[in-house]
Design goal:
The protein is mostly helical and 81 residues long. Helices cover 47% and strands 5% of the residues. The chain has a two-stranded antiparallel ribbon.
């Protein structure tokens, strides 16, 4: 993959791949699987070396940016009793 791609080009949602869950473009690697490894404080270089050699560091960063955008857009509604 080209490092010049934006994160939105690196993350795809295709209903025919993993039932439409977000994946890294050109792979079947789920964003959530990458994020779980990041959550475990595994360095990006180790994620690539040990788990997903098809990824680039920019792909992992794209997964984090994707999650950040989702959190930013989430609306929280409180009910007052």
């Amino acid at each position: 993959m080209s490092s010049k791609k934006t994160y939105k080009e690196r993350i795809v949602i295709d209903h025919e791949i993993h039932f439409g869950k977000p994946c890294v473009a050109g792979t079947r690697i789920l964003v959530e699987d990458v994020l779980e490894l990041v959550q475990e404080n595994i360095p990006f270089s180790e994620i690539i070396k040990k788990y997903y050699p098809d990824l680039e560091i920019e792909d992992i960063k794209a997964c984090v940016r994707y999650a950040t955008d989702l959190a930013r857009l989430e609306e929280i509604h409180f009910e007052i009793a």
